[in-house]
């Protein structure tokens, strides 16, 4: 028996709508009025599996983003430099690096740090 046949008893035989169980004697279709005798349904079992992804999609929740921590070793990471002034101390150059924090079809986030006053800020591009 195919999987869809195993669950056919839950749906209307005329229009395919999910049957409502408002009576002890039959299940009825709320759309067209089709009725299925309770004897056809009694004793049958069906299961339903839901995943965390299904719940997130239903509630329109974005997946959690794990932000990596800075390396714990003492090596100094060399960053690129851009000729833009710091918004806080007006130093003429800023160090920067980029990271993909959002989905792949959106731009990267650029993280800036002033080498003079250590002011940090980011820009989503």
Query: How do the strands of the widest beta sheet line up side by side?
Result: 3-4-5-6
Strand content: 15-25%
Q: End-to-end span in angstroms?
A: 53 Å
Radius of gyration: 30 Å
Name the quaternary structure.
single chain
Mean pLDDT: 79
How many runs of DSSP E, i.e. beta strands? 6
Task: Tell me the overall shape.
Answer: rod-shaped
For the biggest sheet, the summary is: 4 strands, antiparallel
Contiguous low-pLDDT stretches (5 residues minimum) are: 1-5
The percent range for helix content is 10-25%
Overall number of domains = 2
Structural class: alpha+beta
Q: Determine the number of helices (DSSP H or I, runs of at least 4 residues).
A: 3
Order of helices and strands: HEEHHEEEE
Summarize the structure in words:
Zn(2+) 1 binds at residues 12, 15, 29, 32. InterPro entries: Rpa12/Rpb9/Rpc10/TFS, Zn_ribbon_RPA12_C, Znf_TFIIS. DNA-dependent RNA polymerase catalyzes the transcription of DNA into RNA using the four ribonucleoside triphosphates as substrates. Keywords: DNA-directed RNA polymerase, Metal-binding, Nucleus, Transcription, Zinc, Zinc-finger. It is found in: Nucleus, Nucleolus. The chain is α+β, with helices and mostly antiparallel strands. It folds into 2 domains: 9-59, no CATH class; 80-124, N-terminal domain of TfIIb, CATH 2.20.25. The protein is 13% helix and 20% strand. It contains 3 helices and 6 strands; from the N terminus they run αββααββββ. It has a 4-stranded antiparallel sheet, with no helix packed on it. A hairpin with a 6-residue loop joins β1 (26-28) and β2. The longest helix has 8 residues, at 52-59. Residues 1-5 have low confidence and may be disordered.
């Amino acid at each position: 028996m195919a999987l869809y046949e195993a669950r056919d008893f839950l749906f209307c035989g005329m229009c395919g709508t999910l049957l409502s169980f408002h009576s002890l004697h039959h299940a009825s279709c709320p759309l067209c009025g089709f009725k299925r005798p309770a004897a056809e349904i009694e004793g049958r079992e069906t299961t339903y599996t839901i995943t965390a992804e299904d719940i997130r999609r239903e509630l329109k929740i974005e997946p959690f983003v794990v932000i990596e921590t800075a390396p714990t070793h003492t090596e100094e990471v060399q960053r690129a430099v851009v000729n833009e002034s710091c918004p806080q101390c007006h130093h003429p150059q800023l160090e920067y690096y980029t990271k993909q924090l959002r989905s792949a079809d959106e731009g990267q986030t650029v993280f800036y740090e002033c080498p003079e006053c250590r002011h940090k800020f980011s820009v989503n591009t």
